[in-house]
């Protein structure tokens, strides 16, 4: 930018010296016009030219190159004649004057480590999709990222702005720093209803044992007892258990965790990945860490009691829960809306009569539970500070949304034809994705309405396949792919789509008071907290430590950095 201004100054100087102001470009700023002398002011009535209007969708007349890195998924296959460097998206960007060149690509399982190396060595491409909060913190601290705020303000198209700010701006603004800079673009963040937790229960077991969905934690425990002792699968063996925990990887985080049980007691000690914790107002109105609430120990006490009684798997701390699902052993677990796509289809294939119902968390008292919403995303798109054309990233965003969400969108060509993974799902070959935060909710509303009316005429090309799969499932209840779409889009009571995108309203979600990118202190300390919490919770549930040992963990966390982080959050919220 400094060099550009220096060049403008040199042009003006030359023009003054040569007295040929008319040779100056009409698109330069008013700095390029000489100030008239006092004797000529009255004679000079020339109106300065207006700056050239910016076309947010305009192509580059002179091609440029944008370097990037790519995260692949094992089993991905490109269509015949297509490749990572030759597909509809890469060729479209090339037609618009942007040549995308990948510096490297690795499988998703290696991407974070490979990106960590790039961050530590400052070997960065122009475009970095899907960087973590930890990586972002290091890059920002090292002054290695471009502030994209000026380019968003100047180049973002109306449609792209409508999509990215469709939630009122809370998602995009969450990555704006205190001094107004925006180094991170949350392009794939979703409506929080897509990430809240729900309680999944074997409905066929409920029906067989003549049980109702739980409304209280006592109901929850009673159902766990019945699913453990009542032979719900009818094989005459004591081979089922009431509540499944994916303790091997997800003890207090993600699907199969215990986080939903804590929400039954109006608390949430679990971390958001390895980066931040949940903060909310206490009874006095002061911001506090949710792990300090008495509900944490109450939930641990319940889980410990359920383990003693055999309602949990004996080896839950190291168990692989998907295997138990496939074997038909699990009666209830904490899940997410997408679980009908994985891992439940394996059970459905084995036992077509297996059925699930999805509900909210039962409450430990007269106060209804609320879903806890941490943040809408945990990965970001960023641009190197050394990029010569940062505005090109914004224009690529504009072009992307036109082809996916615009009035002339071509879903079949740009979103469905180039690349698939081994599960048969479509995946994008684009260098990065832009997700409408409410797209899943919109698709659910459209498809469920079509199912109800039996009229798919208003569905767009991305929605129609879900409707078609549901029709196939209704004709053939053993068709598992159709069952997944039926669970997600039919709108039938008890399905995950119905609960997450219709029953739950955003206004009813308890949102994290710290709704921002984690800072350096959080990034450096929260992983240690997660390890401490998992260790003590496992011991408590196994009845190898008293519930009160949670207090010791809280004290250790406060000394490690938790108290300081809480003070920072309290200042931030103010």
UniProtKB/TrEMBL annotation:
<feature type="region of interest" description="Disordered">
    <location>
        <begin position="29"/>
        <end position="58"/>
    </location>
</feature>
<protein>
    <recommendedName>
        <fullName>ABC transporter substrate-binding protein</fullName>
    </recommendedName>
</protein>
<keyword id="KW-0732">Signal</keyword>
<feature type="compositionally biased region" description="Low complexity">
    <location>
        <begin position="29"/>
        <end position="42"/>
    </location>
</feature>
<feature type="signal peptide">
    <location>
        <begin position="1"/>
        <end position="25"/>
    </location>
</feature>
<dbReference type="InterPro" id="IPR050490">
    <property type="entry name" value="Bact_solute-bd_prot1"/>
</dbReference>
């Amino acid at each position: 930018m400094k060099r550009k201004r220096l060049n403008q100054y040199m042009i003006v100087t030359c023009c003054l010296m040569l007295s040929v102001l008319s040779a100056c470009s009409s698109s330069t700023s008013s700095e390029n016009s000489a100030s008239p002398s006092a004797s000529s002011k009255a004679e000079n009535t020339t109106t300065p030219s207006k700056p050239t209007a910016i076309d947010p969708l305009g192509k580059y007349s002179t091609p440029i190159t944008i370097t990037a890195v790519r995260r692949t998924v094992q089993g991905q296959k490109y269509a015949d004649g297509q490749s990572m460097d030759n597909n509809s998206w890469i060729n479209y960007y090339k037609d618009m004057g942007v040549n995308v060149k990948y510096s490297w690509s690795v499988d998703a399982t290696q991407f974070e480590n490979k990106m960590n190396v790039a961050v530590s060595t400052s070997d960065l491409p122009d475009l970095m999709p899907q960087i973590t909060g930890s990586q972002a913190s290091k890059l920002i601290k090292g002054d290695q990222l471009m502030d994209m705020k000026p380019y968003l303000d100047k180049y973002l198209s109306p449609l792209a702005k409508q999509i990215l700010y469709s939630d009122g701006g809370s998602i995009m603004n969450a990555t704006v720093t205190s001094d107004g800079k925006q180094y991170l673009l949350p392009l794939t963040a979703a409506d929080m209803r897509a990430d809240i937790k729900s309680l999944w229960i074997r409905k066929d077991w409920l029906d067989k044992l003549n049980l109702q969905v739980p409304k209280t934690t006592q109901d929850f425990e009673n159902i766990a007892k019945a699913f453990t002792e009542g032979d719900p699968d009818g094989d005459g063996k004591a081979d089922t258990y009431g509540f499944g925990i994916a303790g091997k990887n997800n003890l207090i985080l993600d699907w199969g965790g215990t986080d939903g049980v804590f929400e039954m007691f109006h608390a949430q000690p679990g971390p958001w990945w390895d980066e931040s914790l949940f903060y909310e107002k206490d009874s006095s109105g002061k911001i506090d860490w949710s792990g300090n609430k008495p509900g944490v120990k109450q939930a641990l006490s319940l889980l410990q009691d359920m383990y003693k009684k055999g309602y949990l798997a004996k080896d839950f701390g190291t168990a692989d829960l998907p295997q138990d699902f496939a074997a038909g052993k699990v009666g209830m677990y904490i899940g997410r809306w997408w679980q009908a796509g994985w891992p439940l289809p394996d059970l459905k294939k084995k036992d077509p009569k297996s059925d699930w119902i999805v509900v909210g968390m039962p409450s430990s008292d007269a106060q209804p539970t609320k879903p806890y919403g941490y943040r809408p995303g945990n990965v970001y798109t960023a641009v190197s500070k050394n990029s010569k054309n940062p505005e090109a990233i914004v224009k690529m965003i504009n072009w992307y949304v036109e082809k996916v969400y615009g009035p002339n969108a071509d879903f079949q060509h740009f979103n469905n034809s180039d690349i698939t993974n081994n599960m048969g799902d479509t995946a994008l070959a684009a260098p990065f994705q832009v997700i409408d935060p409410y797209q899943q909710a919109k698709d659910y509303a459209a498809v469920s309405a079509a199912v109800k009316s039996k009229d798919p005429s208003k569905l767009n090309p991305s929605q129609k396949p879900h409707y078609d799969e549901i029709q196939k499932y209704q004709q053939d209840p053993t068709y598992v792919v159709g069952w997944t779409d039926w669970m997600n889009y039919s709108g039938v009571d008890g399905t995950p789509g119905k609960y997450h995108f219709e029953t739950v309203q955003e206004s009813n979600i308890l949102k994290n008071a710290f709704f921002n990118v984690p800072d350096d202190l959080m990034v450096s300390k929260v992983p240690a907290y997660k390890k401490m919490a998992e260790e003590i919770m496992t011991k408590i549930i196994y009845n190898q430590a008293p519930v009160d040992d949670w207090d010791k963990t809280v004290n250790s966390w406060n000394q490690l950095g938790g108290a300081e982080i809480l003070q920072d959050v309290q200042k931030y919220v103010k």
